[in-house]
Amino acid sequence: MLMPKKTKYRKMMKGRMKGTETRGTQFEFGRYALKALEPGWITSRQIEAARRAMTREIKRGGNVWIKIFPDKPITAKPAETRMGSGKGNVEYWVAVVKPNRILFELDYFDRAVAVNALELAAQKLPIKVKIIEKEEVSA
Prior knowledge:
Blueprint: E1 32-36, E2 40-43, H1 44-57, E3 63-66, E4 72-76, E5 89-97, E6 102-107, H2 111-123, E7 129-133
Helix pairs in contact: 1-2
C-alpha cells in the first residue's frame, strides 16, 4: 500500500474539496489517462486495485504512471467506545482528488487494450472518471 514514509503531524482535519484542480491536469508521460470528474477521497487500497487491474490487462507491454499519492491520514475510533478521550488512531490513507485531476497515465501500442485497461481501473474507483487521449501532433 502507498503511504508516506513519515509526516510532520500524525493526524489531519477533514478539510473541504471546493473548486476544480489546477495542477496535475495535463499529460506528462503516457498517451491515455483517467481524469476525475467529481471530487472525492481515493484510498491507497483503491489506487493499488486500479493499478493491478491495469497492469494485468496490458500484461507486460506498456507503462503505467500513478499521478496521485495518498498523503492524508483518516482516523477512526474503535467500535463501542464512549465519547471523548481524544481523536482516534490512523486507520488508512487517502488522496484528495478534485475534478480535472489526472489520476493514472498509461502508454500502450494498442488503443483498444489501453482503453479497456483504463475502464477496468475506473471500476475500482469511487468517483466518476473519464478516459482521455493525448492529441497527436502531426508534422
